[in-house]
Amino acid sequence: MDWKHWYMELEQDDESWDVSEEVVLRGVVHLNFCGQPSEVEVEFIVGADSEEQAQAIEEPTDLQKKTWEQYMEYSSAIHLQVLESIHHHYAGIVEKYRNAYITWGEDPDEYAPYVEQPEQLLDRIQLMSILISDSSAKDELYLNFSCSWDREHGLGVHMKQMKMEHIQGVYTLYDLE
């Protein structure tokens, strides 16, 4: 893919900036997550020290580009590692969700079934977005999924140097830093 052209085509938020604001550059890419095709929103968050600097931002930083291109180059291997990590995480939380669905009078097998193999989760998760911040450490990104067991909060995977760092609900994952 012609990344240089794609970076120039990213959409920028049309909000007015404050001195402490960040610019969000968004684009869409079609990815294959472990055989599952996904249309994924990619967000690059670029900090700015002034409104003038914010208005001049047209592309992600060089570090963000490097992180993104490395992710794309090794995405097949990374996705297998992420699926394994999600499966391990899921095994530790499935009982909590099953009990919650029973309490709510719903069938736990519909939303949080027992699974033995990571691949059994593929019809339960969907990669929705990827976030790469410029204030993050080198080679750091977040993969955000919708998931059947937590339809409100989803599932977030924090990666550093293309290795799984932490898994948590999407909305609480970013509060860890």
Task: Give a structural overview.
With 177 residues, the chain is α+β, with helices and mostly antiparallel strands. The protein has helices spanning 3-9, 51-56, 62-73, 75-103, 108-111, 170-173; strands at residues 11-12, 22-33, 36-47, 125-133, 140-147, 155-160, 163-168. It has a 7-stranded mixed β-sheet with strand order 1-2-3-4-5-6-7. A hairpin with a 7-residue loop joins strand 5 (140-147) and strand 6 (155-160). The two termini are 32 Å apart.
Name its key features.
alpha+beta, 6 helices, 177 residues, 7 strands
Main sheet: strand order: 1-2-3-4-5-6-7
Structural class: alpha+beta
Estimate the global geometry from the Cα principal axes: elongated
Spans of at least 5 consecutive residues whose pLDDT stays below 50 are none
Proportion of beta-strand residues: 25-35%
Q: Give average pLDDT, whole number.
A: 88
Note the run of SSEs as H and E. HEEEHHHHEEEEH
Condensed summary:
This protein is an alpha+beta fold.
